[in-house]
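fwd from M.: "can u put these together and see what the complex looks like"

so here's what she sent:
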Amino acid sequence: MFRRKRKPSDFTSEIDAHLQLEIERLQEQGLSEEQARATARRSFGNLLQAEEHFYESHRWLGWDHFWQDARYALRMLRNAPGFTAMAILTIALGIGATTAIFSVVDATLLHPLPYPQPEQLVSIRDDFTGVGAQDVGMSQPEWQDLQHSGIFEYVSPTWFDENNLTGLSQPARVRLLIVAPNYFALLGVKPQSGRAFNPEDHSPGLIPEALISDGLWKRAFGSDPHILDHSMRLDTDLYRIVGVMPPGFDAPGRTAEERNVEVWAATSFYGPPMSDHPPRNPRNLPTAIARLKPGLTVAAAQSRVDALVNSLQKQFPGDYPLQSAWTVRLLPLKQRVVGNVRGSLFLLLGAVGLVLLIGCVNIANLQLARASARGREMALRQALGAARTRLSRQLLTESLILSLLGGIAGIAILFCTRNFLLQLVPESLPRLNDISISWSVLVFALGASVLSGVVFGLAPAWHAGRLDLTHMLKVQGRGSTGSGEQARTRRVLVITEFALSLVLMTAATLLLRSFWDLLNVPLGFNPQNVMAVRTRLPDPNDPKADLYGTPAREAPFLREVLRRGRTLPGVEEVALGDTASIPLDESLRNLKLISEGQFLFTLEGDIRNDEPPVAERSSVTPEYFHLLGIPLLRGRLFNGSDNDAAPQVAVINEAFARTFWPDQNALGKRFKRNRPSAPWITVVGVIANARTESLAQSSVPKIYLDLFQTGGKRLAVFLRGHLDTAAIPGEVREQVQSVDPTLPVSGGQTLIETLSASLAERRFSMEMVGLFALTALLLAGLGIYGVISYIVTARTHEIGIRIALGAERSRILQMVLRQGLGLAIAGAAVGLVGAVIVSHLMAGLLYGVRPTDPLTFAGVTILLIGVALLACYLPARRTLRVDPLIALRHE
Amino acid sequence: MSTQESSERLELLQGTLDLLILRTLIFGSQHGQGIARAIQQTSEEELLVEHGALYPALQRLEERGWISAKWGVSSNNRKARFYALTAAGRKQLVKETNKWKRLTGAIARILGPEKA
């Protein structure tokens, strides 16, 4: 129960009042004032005692004691600089690392998205669960259905695109997001200058207005204060700049590419260049976000959307075949943004937490050792009348002060190294810019420090309260061997350390093996000495203005780039493809770019197949396959006669052939895209599988079309040879721009770099967990070293006697080692159980190894026991040098 | 009379002071000096209450919730802290009184019949 404390002054004035009343009474009885005062005092008794009694009963003392303890603790810590430095350093590293990871978790997972009422924001995803096709996008009529359903305040499709910004000194590729006019009203964000789109503007076609990001304003327009008077040309179309978004505003997206939008354009998704009456199929709006009506939960909205989907399916049975099972799923927007990093982040937080815990256990161990050395001091103080609880409390105070000092040091280290640390974080992490040492992070650090102090202070404090007074005082000399109970606690602590380290080591090894396996997976293509440089052809809204509108009009450009590419120094082979053909390129994957990504198709003939008719697709020139070293298995590759006029042909990979035409010859088979009036495409060749889409998947069905037949706007120039990687991007730019000076040229990555970037997140988790595991191993080694050293020192006397009586030194060494080994094995046994649990929890992050990989478990256990033996051997060796004469005098 | 005779008075048995305070307060709220006076007078000056010991006892009773306190003005216009019995205090008084009666009864039986 909480009661307001009474102030000491209140108590004193009550006593004054009492004395006054008594004096008056006595005066009434005829005493002089002086006599009365003396009598009243006397009958009151010991005034000071009464006040002290009040003081103690009111816990003011508690505070006094704390200060006493704190001052004493600081003195003690100063007197043991080695121990203090070691403990503070351990805690500083532990708290620093834990806080660093927490700051990332805080920014990405705990903080709401930086928009007003973020809980009302959802992402909309359409699936054809019946055919296993996910994230198939929506169509303009469906968007309108949702917008008018009464479930949402606003719904806006988002259509990621790139455009060529011309009219500057150098044409630039800008990341463009095409949205509904209500987009900014939906997010609830206002531009820093100018205005947003008018949410009620439903004019056909693209609205000739654009908002630009703060970054583009600064970079491309030199922070021009009169920017709102300007227009800009995107893909030759003119847009008026109506607003500049504030700095730090990111579009809600999963990848850096998706978030760093530079230009927003708006449309109601009908009218030129789109269809005047958009059909329900094909579905060409890739994704959508929405704001729920106030007061509506996601679950409630979902059930209303389900009902709407049901009635639409009945209304338009032709567009929504029952077997495809169209579903519309609402997902909290935040979940979409941070969903795929959650697992890794929690893994890291868990790992770093374990390291902190192991550090705490280590310090507890050190403190116990010190406590037994201080046993006599404690016993003496107790003999002089100190309460046991008081001693315990004093030790706990010492621990708390240690951990707080460590925590402060940790924060200081973190603060000094924060810029360096941020560079380690992969760029793909959502909300990277929000990571900071905020108040909540500081509170976390403080809490973690206090908690650590309690964790490593409890064992010594508990033992201090249970000292055997007479025994302690009887023991002569400097220290004592400590009680048996204390030794037992120390052994339990070491076992704990080993168990925790084993868990961490196992996790790290599994991640390392996954990473290693991925690195060494046979790629099926040769990335050595290959560079990809990107360019992009304009895609104006008016098809008549499009210089590259048809494959036939694009072909001369493609041929010219190929020809010029071959003349560059060191270049042996050149090929062209759309950006989807860049192997393992993560930057634009998942973006659902127009005409890229998944390809829904129909196979010719009545083929019953359970597989969803979905495949990855890219367009390439014939040289592509040889350049990447992907072998042809059957049929032929593209050749010069596959042009705009000839029937469309395709080269497919082995996985496609196996999946869709099992036990049949795929050559000559036909399929077509799920679009009205799409032409039939004939399979002319089958190539070997290559891991061009995902390192982790060996056989993704893939279709290659001839770039000369399909055309393509986002292009990659592939070059193989002994290339000067620094010079090639500039040289390619020169060649491309000498064909068309309005084209932007960017990129210029070797395929090895692309491959390595695709592993960035995995590498980050692996390196971090690995680092933590090594720290844990080191700490556990130090822990067991400390315990064995202590045992050896404490038993020097006994060992001396044994040697004097003729014991072999090697047997004594064995005896000590066996003790250490016992601890390590016990720790490993407990740790293995924990490791099995943890490895199953992280199964989703693994590749190629099973969570219960016996080799990993055995290897880690052996390593840990090896470290334990080494850590035991060093102090145990000292027993070999024990001189029985000295040992017997040792006391 | 004077306090000189105090050495001849009875010292309080341990634990009885609480009971006496509660009992005194049954007639209404009173300040510390008043309580001390009342105990002494009611016991016909037989019991010695060391005033200094009274306050820690009052403090204790207040913390246990058996009495409550507030500042007020005494009959001769002095500011003083007045104590009053709470409901819990009343219950406690009944309990303690019964206990005390059983105890004194038992002791009386052992010590034998009273001499007239």
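replying to her w this: Chain B has one domain: 9-108.
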